[in-house]
Amino acid sequence: MSEPGSSHIRFPRSGHILIPAEGRRAVAAGLSLHSSCRPAAVLAQRILYAGARVVGPRVVPGERARWTPPLPEEVWSGLLEEWTSHVGRVDSVAVYHRPQTGRVGLSALLLREGRGVGFVRVSNDVARVNHEARVVRALNRARPETFRVAELVAAEDVNGLGWMLSESVPNYPLGAVRRSRTREAVAAEISDVLSDALDRPADVPPHWTVAHGDLSPWNLRRRISGAVQVIDWEDAAYAPPGVDALYGALTAHVSLGTPLPVSAPAEAHAWVDDLLSGRIATQPDAAAEITRTRDVLRAIPVAR
User: What residues does CATH 3.30.200.20 cover in the chain?
Assistant: First the structure.
């Protein structure tokens, strides 16, 4: 098991992903935590994944490090015991630390003999974790047609922490969705499926709909089978119509070079601009890219 102080590889250069440094399957599975978007980067990641499956840890670039959970040892041990009661024995973990300064916590891919048996998100923002768990439960009940969502296994609050455990998504590098038609179909179904799942705050205009809130290429993924996998539901909330389609098109353009819309609804345009402005403040390391994305947004004409 990945006990405190266990050996991991920091990948990629940002170092927020830590991959178990033992076992070909475990190393390869850990690589799947990195959401490459550009086609060349996805191809490179898949080549590295194949190399790790054959050769093992030595082909993976990155600093070798001793990983220690950012929690007291007794708390971490208690969490592992609870998770294994749901998914069975776990012998290693791959870890994703939040790179954004505005978000706290970690996610972990739970592995047994190099195969993912569960994916868990832990945060001291208990309300945010509970919100995401509620959204995922609603999606699991709805069985959407245009995309897939990992099945929720369990979610609890303990020691001032919130955690949610779901099934493991495929442990190979997923590609980003490029087609605007696919993205728009997913956005429309999200709005429809979640319309009754979230309480509407009193100050929310009646025409606003539920949006994913971060329907970017790193959260809208394509399986090898062709199925679309949508991840990271913690930002789901009521928003102006068209927000997911606009934000998805904008981030896909910046990341993948896909076409921009010829115009954008005024409310959605303003909402996305405010979102990006807030992220500049909370993610200083990524501020230049966020500013560029915001500049691209402002070049999109507002539909009147």
Answer: 6-166
The three-state secondary structure class of 215 is coil
CB 175 within 8 A of CB 42: yes
Distance of CA 132 to the CA centre of its chain: 12
Q: Two tokens at 228?
A: 């679309």
Half-sphere exposure of 234 toward its Cβ, with a 13 Å CA cutoff? Answer: 17
What is the DSSP secondary-structure string of 28-90?
HHHHTTS---SHHHHHHHHHHHHHHHHT-GGGS-S-EEEE--SS-HHHHHHHHHHHHHHH---
Residue 29 predicted with pLDDT over 90: yes
Average pLDDT over residues 165-176: 94
**Strand order through the sheet with 228-230:** 175-176, 220-222, 228-230
For 122, the 3-state DSSP assignment is: strand
Task: For residue range 86-127, list pLDDT tens digits in order.
Answer: 999 999 999 998 755 545 688 999 999 999 999 999 999 999
Q: Note the Cα 252 to chain centre separation in Å.
A: 15
In terms of CATH architecture, what is 6-166? 2-Layer Sandwich (3.30)
- Binning the chain into helix, strand and coil, the percentages to the nearest 5 are 40, 20, 40
| Rounded alpha-carbon distances, angstroms, from residue 96 to 15, 179, 246, 272 | 9, 28, 28, 26
- Cα of 123 vs its chain's centroid, Å: 14
Cβ pair 164, 136 in contact under 8 A: yes
- Provide DSSP, 220-272: EEE-TTS-EEE---TT-EEE-TTHHHHHHHHHHHHHH-PPPPS-EEHHHHHHH
Rounded mean pLDDT of 19-23?
91
